[in-house]
Design goal:
By secondary structure, the chain is α/β, with parallel strands linked by helices. About 40% of the residues lie in helices and about 20% in strands. The chain contains 10 helices and 14 strands. The strands form 4 sheets. The chain has an 8-stranded parallel barrel, surrounded by 4 helices. Strands 4-5 form a two-stranded antiparallel ribbon. α5 runs parallel beside α6. The relative contact order is 0.12.
């Protein structure tokens, strides 16, 4: 009898572990200034368990406070990914191709990768690469067949993947991508190549914004499927806004029902496995448990 009870208790414990470890594919981009006001219990209750926190948090709030935030998130079964710009610094685009010498700027690669490895050492769960691209000028930086803008982005992805996973094999590497099929020509982003080194591709499918509103939902679904198909084996989480961009100067926050409807479209009607909300502080966040119903 005692053996039976022990076995049942063990089985229940293992079941509980499995439930606790259930993967979560819902995320939100979080600007550093909002970190102190975030209610982690509320986010967890809404099944938003991947926080993409901007690296400026370490400078703005201090390393200790930021790591305490990470620790509190972990206690709630949440993951924290540190978000930073790869090819953009101090309000300016960085060109990582030395066109005149026909080479990639390894010294710049090393500088950015060193930063990422430092964050991995802090015990965060992921590294999120924003601006991992050229600012629409990739086609200008192809000095030879061997040295190209697209090759540069891919090589950087390879190197940062190798370095961060050497520091922690379980680190999650993600990247924000422009939502355009011809992103290779303009931005140097080839999802087929990036997907070999990046764990999660997050195309920014902002179809409520002026630049992409014309395509609407059909366009958004097409883009999600394009990246999911081309970017394998990487997972694809669709990036979407929590607001409507009415013109160049004004945004209107969305209600929870509207945001949930957009999330459901991606999960139910495309090959995207997850959703990422841009951003915290705008819009009423929905309960994403509804996506599982």
């Amino acid at each position: 009898m005692k053996r039976t009870v022990t076995f049942i208790c063990l089985a229940l414990a293992l079941l509980g572990c499995r439930q606790a470890e259930e993967p979560n594919f819902n995320g939100i981009w979080l600007w550093s200034k909002f970190m102190p006001e975030v209610n982690l219990d509320t986010l967890a209750a809404k099944d938003i368990k991947n926080i993409i926190l901007h690296e400026v948090s370490f400078e703005r709030h201090g390393v200790d406070s930021t790591l305490e935030f990470v620790s509190q998130a972990h206690k709630r079964g949440m993951k924290v990914h540190i978000w930073f710009q790869a090819f953009y610094q101090n309000g300016k685009w960085m060109n990582p191709v030395d066109d005149s010498l026909n080479r990639y700027k390894q010294e710049y690669f090393d500088e950015v990768i060193e930063r990422a490895v430092r964050y991995v050492g802090y015990g965060v769960d992921g590294i999120h690469l924003d601006y991992i691209r050229f600012g629409g000028t990739a086609w200008k930086h192809n000095p030879s067949e061997e040295i190209t803008a697209t090759g540069c982005v891919t090589e950087f992805c390879r190197q940062i993947s190798e370095a961060t996973k050497a520091a922690n094999p379980d680190i999650i590497l993600s990247a924000a991508l422009m939502p355009e099929p011809d992103s290779e020509y303009y931005y140097g982003q080839d999802p087929a190549q990036m997907g070999q080194y990046i764990d999660i591709l997050m195309p920014m499918i902002y179809f409520h914004c002026d630049s992409y509103r014309k395509g609407g939902r059909p366009w958004a679904q097409m883009v999600a499927d394009h990246f999911a198909t081309k970017g394998a084996p990487a997972r694809v989480w669709a990036g979407l806004t929590t607001y409507v961009d009415t013109d160049t100067t004004k945004v209107v926050p969305m209600d929870a029902e509207s945001i949930l409807r957009d999330c459901r479209m991606f999960i139910d009607s495309t090959m995207a496995e997850g959703v990422v909300l841009f951003r915290y502080g705008l819009g009423d966040l929905p309960d994403l448990h509804e996506l599982k119903k």
